[in-house]
Design brief:
Elements lengths: L1 E6 L7 H17 L2 E4 L14 H15 L2 E4 L11 H4 L1
């Protein structure tokens, strides 16, 4: 099954909203025979590191490298442009 990495600012929403959005996106992809890979799928212990940003980057980059494709939410976030981490 092909996999798609889901990029976007959704990770910054409240857990309730984020989970609802993630579930919807994953269901849509599954209907089309695709597996969703989300940054929220990473089970990271941010308290165990002196550099949580690097831990998050490494985990997300590994998911991106594993994915066959990517869907990015480029909706303006916290200003007039897309989330900086998404457009990286």
């Amino acid at each position: 099954m092909a996999s798609i990495y889901l990029a976007g600012p959704d990770v910054f929403f409240s857990e309730t909203i984020r989970n609802r959005i993630e579930a919807t996106k994953k269901a849509i992809l599954a209907e089309h025979g695709l597996e969703a890979l989300s940054p929220c799928d990473n089970d990271l212990d941010l308290e165990s590191t002196n550099n949580p940003a690097q831990l998050i980057y490494d985990a997300n980059r590994a998911l991106m490298d594993q994915a066959d494709g990517l869907i990015a939410n480029l909706t303006p976030f916290r200003g007039p442009s897309a989330d900086a981490g998404t457009i990286f």
